[in-house]
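Friendly challenge for the regulars: who can give me the structure tokens for this chain first? No prize, just bragging rights.
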Amino acid sequence: LGARKKTSDGLLAVVARLVRAKAQEFRVAEGRILAAGVDSGADAAWTLLAQEPDLFARALLAGSGAVPAVVAAKVSAQVRLYLGEMDRHSPPAATQASVAQLGNGLGHPADVRVLPGKNHKALIDAAFDDEALSWLLQLSP
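First reply, four minutes later:
Bragging rights claimed.
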């Protein structure tokens, strides 16, 4: 497990460098970089948000499991997290409890939304609808 975590942390550092390089190449202003992820991609996004707290302005995540306090306590981005009411892979109660325990640890309160009748597989279409994407893209200039 330790080797796996070291590898994933190394890969996330590469992702962060790539995001910074592309933001510079395309002249994307600070505070306008966004993150999104589903399932393990959402879990990786939480970690990336913690490792690079000033890189991302907002994150739209779906199907993430319980959020470790050590990770989320460092997150300064605005986070919207979608969970499926019927999700057995990432039960909403566990994730809601971990986010609630964080209290004011997040730079902004996480907006946790439980989608009625949705399972883990149904989250992709349900969580990334027009309203959610509008929220993600709603940044000040």
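The radius of gyration is 15 Å. The mean pLDDT is 81. Your move, everyone else.
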